[in-house]
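Run log // design_07
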């Protein structure tokens, strides 16, 4: 009798949760779009993107283009990088050398997943997203579907590295107490099944492959891509996401993006994505800006040091993006032998060093009433967009054009604490406009113990900044006032 009663309670609870939409999602956008992005992701703020595959062997494209598109550029006259890639390929590999011939050279012999994971942890990142499969269809895990539809071994365990790269990195990243995610391309440029019958490709290849990689590695993030050639109905995205939300191994914590069919970006799915831009405007919707350290996601040997952003720029981008409610997914492009280029390691270590001091002003925060305080002058128009929009963070902060305003302070908030992050440090007073605090408010500079003197003025707050030489400053690139005692 007791067992029957317990069974009845379980069934009744299940029906109630399903009725309320709390325990089950239907395969339709109206239901799926009600799911909120889990808090861990919006609290994390900073992640590492990794583009790695056979394209890492030639590691080449025209500067300004994406090296991971090598195969497409090689075969597609009219693309911006076609002439450069074709000429490079014929000169150094020969016209008869195919893209498939790169796979045996994708050896990864120097890949140490524990070393990578330690670097990511030291950078201050909270999650990692690896290209499980890019548009070339080559898989970094043992995918039976890839081998079957391509008619050849087309995964990293059966060819090239002879290693389950995704599995190894997943284990190391989780050991380092970071969240692990995957990038997954819906389409594959030259997959015979995709080229001949996209519906059959989706049914026989993509759906079972997608479910395999998600079930096998239980990612916390799915960065879908390659959706733009077909509608979400063709990709059967609603069906896929209902499965992800209801049945996948980490269904409660998993986060997905918005790339699930032509026209779906910033409309359906989870968080909104932008790529090589300043991100979206100030909005309550979760979003993420991703970019490489140079002009490419995949490693491009043609890029010189001047093509890379500096550590200072990445730190300012991180703060600027977080102040507006976004996350920052910064990409690295490892080499074919499994090394993370030293310049990329250096950038990550510098970001981590800054976050060691200032991280509490980034993690677990939310935007304040305004994202920043502008100086005097004509305020520049901040360009927004989804893809490849100019984002000169130095002009917006420390290198403005003559007579043009710049961002003096970025703001983030956590409960009754306001963080004021300054891209410039000047000994003397810092004035925070239109700010009122409690009489017992305590203000400190992160990285220093002694509280600062302050005065409540008519139109804001005056804070006395300590005089410091470069060696005594707690941070190298930006400095944070912690104001504990807002008038809420």
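design_07 sequence
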């Amino acid at each position: 009798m007791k067992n029957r009663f317990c069974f009845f309670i379980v069934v009744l609870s299940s029906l109630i949760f399903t009725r309320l939409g709390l325990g089950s999602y239907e395969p339709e956008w109206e239901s799926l779009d009600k799911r909120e992005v889990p808090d861990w992701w919006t609290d994390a703020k900073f992640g590492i993107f990794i583009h790695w595959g056979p394209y890492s062997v030639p590691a080449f494209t025209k500067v300004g283009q994406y090296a991971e598109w090598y195969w497409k550029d090689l075969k597609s006259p009219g693309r911006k990088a076609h002439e450069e890639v074709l000429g490079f390929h014929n000169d150094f590999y020969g016209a008869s050398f195919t893209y498939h011939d790169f796979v045996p050279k994708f050896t990864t012999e120097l890949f140490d997943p524990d070393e990578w994971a330690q670097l990511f942890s030291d950078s201050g990142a909270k999650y990692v997203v690896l290209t499980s499969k890019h548009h070339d269809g080559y898989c970094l895990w043992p995918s039976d579907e890839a081998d079957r539809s391509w008619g050849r071994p087309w995964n990293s365990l059966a060819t090239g590295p002879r290693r389950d790269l995704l599995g190894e990195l997943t284990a190391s990243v989780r050991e380092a107490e970071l969240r692990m995610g995957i990038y997954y391309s819906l389409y594959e440029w030259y997959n015979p099944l995709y080229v001949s019958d996209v519906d059959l490709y989706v049914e026989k290849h993509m759906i079972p492959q997608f479910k395999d990689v998600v079930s096998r590695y239980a990612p916390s993030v799915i960065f879908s891509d390659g959706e733009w050639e077909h509608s979400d109905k063709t990709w059967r995205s609603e069906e896929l996401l209902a499965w992800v939300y209801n049945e996948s191994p980490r269904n409660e914590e998993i986060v997905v993006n918005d790339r699930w069919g032509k026209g779906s970006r910033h409309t359906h799915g989870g968080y909104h994505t932008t790529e090589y831009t300043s991100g979206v405007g100030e909005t309550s919707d979760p979003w993420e800006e991703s970019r490489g350290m140079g002009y490419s996601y995949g490693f491009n040997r043609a890029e010189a040091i001047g093509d890379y952003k500096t550590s200072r720029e990445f730190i300012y981008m991180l703060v600027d993006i977080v102040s507006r409610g976004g996350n920052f997914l910064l990409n690295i492009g490892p080499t074919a032998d499994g090394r993370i280029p030293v310049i990329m390691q250096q950038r990550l270590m510098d970001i981590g060093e800054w976050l060691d001091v200032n991280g509490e002003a980034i993690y677990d925060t939310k935007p304040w009433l305004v994202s920043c305080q502008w100086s005097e002058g004509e305020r520049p128009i901040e360009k927004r967009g989804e893809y490849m929009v100019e984002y000169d963070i130095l002009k917006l902060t420390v290198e403005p054009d003559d007579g043009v305003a710049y961002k003096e302070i970025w703001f983030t908030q956590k409960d009754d604490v306001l963080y004021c992050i300054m891209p410039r440090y000047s000994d003397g007073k810092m004035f925070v406009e239109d700010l009122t605090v409690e009489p017992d408010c305590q203000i400190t500079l992160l990285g220093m113990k002694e509280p600062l003197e302050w005065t409540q003025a008519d139109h804001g707050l005056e804070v006395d900044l300590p005089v410091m030489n470069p060696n005594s400053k707690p941070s190298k690139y930006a400095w944070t006032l912690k104001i504990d005692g807002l008038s809420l």
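The CA atoms of residues 140 and 165 lie 5 Å apart.
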